[in-house]
Amino acid sequence: MAAKIPKTNAARLLEAAGVQFDLIPYEVDEQNLDAGHVAAQLGEPLETVFKTLVLRGDRNGLFVCVMPGDMEVDLRTAARISGNKSAAMIHVRELQPLTGYIRGGCSPIGMKKSFPTYIYESALLYDYIYVSAGVRGLQLRIRPEDLISFVGAGIYPID
Predict the structure, then answer these.
(1) In this structure, are residues 119 and 85 in contact, taking their beta carbons and an 8 Å threshold?
(2) Other beta carbons within 10 Å of 24
(3) Range of 39's domain?
(4) Alpha carbon distances (Å) from 58 to 97, 109, 135, 142
(5) Where residue 70 sits, what CATH number does that domain have?
(6) How far apart are CA 77 and CA 61, in angstroms?
(7) Which of 4, 41, 144, 155 has a Cα at 20 to 30 A from 83?
């Protein structure tokens, strides 16, 4: 008998809103929490596994960028799209107090507070993408349009 997949807060919120999604478990490697490991565990292309990054802008405070696992955030572009002059990643020790999530398990859905969110527009190239379900070892498989609509995200443009 297969182990029961735990339902996370993010999954409960999506379910309550009637949004279609799948919960996909994967094997966690505490020494390697990057999206490449997750993609390999899922057997999916890295560009469909999106990471959730929390940044702080100099004018508008905290915001979230959801981007493909094969990309690095361009801080200048992130600042511009969020209405800031500059932006920086928050320190990992700030992540849980601010969002309720830990590194490697940060979901764009169900943070302690709603932050402006920007999803990289390449997400729209795929029928579905993967984002963290809010814990290490569990991903949400969701249509990008549904995620964008649910979190009220702006589109992070390809430059």
Answers:
(1) no
(2) 17
(3) 18-156
(4) 20, 24, 29, 32
(5) 3.90.960.10
(6) 16
(7) 144
Q: What are phi and psi of 61, to 5 degrees?
A: 75, -145
The whole-angstrom separation of Cα 105 and Cα 151 is 17
- What pLDDT was estimated at residue 57? 98
CA–CA distance, 93 with 112 (Å, rounded to integer)? 15
> Rounded CA gap, 30 and 101, in Å?
15
User: Six-digit token pair at 127?
Assistant: 């029928």
Residue 88 sits at φ, ψ, to 5 deg, of -145, 150
Asked, for residue 45, whether it belongs to a domain, the answer is yes
| Residue labelled with tokens 């997750």 | 38
pLDDT tens digit sequence for 12-56: 999 999 999 999 999 988 888 889 999 999 999 999 999 999 999
Q: What is the pTM of this model?
A: 0.93
